Amino acid sequence: MKKGLLIFFLFAISITVTAQQNLGKDHSKSNITCKTCHVCDVPTKDDPCLVPCPREKMKTVYESPDKTVDVVSLEELSKKYLPVIFSHRVHAQMSVMSGGCGTCHHYNTSGPIQSCKNCHQTYRNRDDISKPDLEAAYHRQCITCHREWSHGTNCNSCHSPKMDKKGFQKEEAKKKVMGKVHPALIEPDKIVFETKYEKGKMVTFFHDDHTKKFKIECTSCHKNETCLKCHDVNKASIEKSKIVKAQKSLDEHHKKCFSCHKEDKCGSCHLNKSAEPFEHGKKTGWALNKFHVNLSCAKCHGSKMPYTKLDNKCSSCHKAWNNETFKHSITGLGLDETHSQLNCEDCHAENNYTVKPVCSNCHENYSFPKQKPGKLVGRK
Amino acid sequence: MSGKSRRDFLKTSAVIGAGVAGLSTSTVKAAPKNILSEDRMGVLVDSTVCVGCRNCEWACKEAHDLPAGDLQSYEERSVFKDKRRPGTKALTVVNEYSSGKNSNLPVDVKVQCMHCDHPACVSACIVGAFSKEENGSVIWDTDKCIGCRYCMAACPFQVPAFEYDKAINPLIMKCDFCFNRTKEGKLPACVNICPVEALTYGPRTELVKIARERIKRNPEKFVDHIFGEHEVGGTAWMYLSGKDFVELDFPQLGTNPAPGVSESIQHGIFAYFVPPVSLYALLGGIMWITKHRKELDEEEKS
To answer: Is the minimum CB–CB distance between A176 and chain B shorter than 8 Å?
Structure first.
């Protein structure tokens, strides 16, 4: 019995030790199986697919920016200045398009977020000079971006000297910043690129269409933007539609487009004039109704590019619809008891739902709603 | 006359002087009599980190009792319009360059004395006022200095400056690696104030390792070269850059210690006791002539 207990304790201790092991950089070589932490077979840096259990409560670099800490007070080094009230959430939201949380929270493991002072020492005259001290670590993160749009290194844009404000209330200052979210982004309607392609110099990119109509996530194109893309003290406002000279390399420019427009010919984008925006009705002859217009393209066309033409039978997509499951009132016409008994094709001949059935197809030729249609005269 | 052409003039005259003496100016291996300690200190300047705040300029002036003004006034960025050089009023300056690439961020480079391992100024100084200290600093003794400005002509980085505007007791001025601060265990003033730690102070050997590691970890960010690791035999101040060093106005120098050049000239002039021998020969000649005349005079009288 005692022996059994002892073995159990030893076992328990060994588990705790394994769990607390510092896995470090080359943890793939450690003697625990990958599946202890990762769910999938090939975990990547972007998607480490970690086991959910205790991690739900753990703050990692993979947390959604909207759920992160709202305001952080940086005060470890406040000798000369008051604590810096840092609007963490707004910055996290902005980071989505420029490298993500990892831009600041570098060298983070997939485990809990490390605070800067865990690695960076608080004084400069130190033995380990391989990484900057805390002051430099903070400044490098802030100034490197801030000077890009402010074109300066003004201390006072973040710091207030201590002697300026006596009776500084940290909590009050925090409250002022709390709850701030990044304002809605101003998107251009379209951007016309002037290219060097002789046969068609103008490429019109309908930004609005891509984001609103095609429901493409901003981050699928904007991954590593600089702050300057939106922010600049010298920039008055972002123009709604503009002409831009294509300056990037051929590869860089086409890469983003080609991820969807794979088999398009040059001429489908390169024109000699600014192009018309995409309209489903014009281009395909099948205008989208108010329900379809809100769907992402992939919802109907599938994720495979380029999109293929679909047939316009409702039933090719809406396979599960019948007179019981389809809410007819959605079309603007609620079916009464008599009509709801009917089969769909009783009114919609040959399952063609694109043609609106008229009462006179079945009833005496009275026009609704002035007069109720008369008795049933026949069905086509 | 600009500083550079003056230097050129001095250099040319020295070469002509050597030529006149009829002696070769072939490179002589520099033999610094000064200390080159194994654990001498240095500074690694990472120009990819520098933000051009110019706080170092202010701190340097404060530490050297030069008129510094208000720290806030250093936020003014119009000074970057011209490329500045360290001088008697500022022992270090930061210059700004366009990064060239797609980035909108400029490249800022701090300039000051490089504190060579084999300093040409030490070698050129005819009164031995200059010395390479154990901690890596190249400093000079103002009391010994006679203001000959040979150090200025010798320096491959054109750093030492002379107070031309002072009529009485003009001094040679340059970065002294904050010798007075470091001997008390403090950091050099510029290193201490740098908000982003673009300047790292530490043992030179360790700094080289750190620099190599940074390049290795981020090969796209850096040019694969540590300026000062081997230039003119190595310098205490070393630089990392994301842009070609030539474009940042760094001089193109070989790996031979600079004193090789200046010493060969000086040693050439002073070799084989030519000056003392000719001086004594001249004096002896004059003596002989005067003595001969005296004898003739006396003969005539008698």
So the answer is: no
